[in-house]
Amino acid sequence: MIAATNHPDSPAGPNLVLVVDDDFDIREALSDVLASEGYSVLTAADGGEALERLRGGVRPAVMLLDLMMPRVSGVEVIDALRKDESLSKIPVVVCSANRGYGPDDLGVHDVLRKPVSVEELLEAVARAIRPRPPLQRN
Hints:
By secondary structure, the protein is an alpha/beta fold.
């Protein structure tokens, strides 16, 4: 098992998940589940902290992102990622109680509704990390 970490200088990697949620208990629960499955986990308490880590060089394989957070919301994080070429390819899985959005609406890989089951969480993370086959051109 790889322990969850809050260290801002954690390396990038194929199994690094950045968990962004303002609720400490949710951050810890998601981190514990992911770490028990062999993922390396980095957490951020809001969108501002997540952007600071990303701009500081952290490159997760996927980001789990809440939408409704103080300081910088999940929607603002998604907008910032789109505008920064070096961050725009990071897959984002929204994990939120907000039921008004789907993946296409937000331009993200997936949307999970809280409360999320362990199976849903692990499947969404695996789908986001899994390399996509190249597009077939005719």
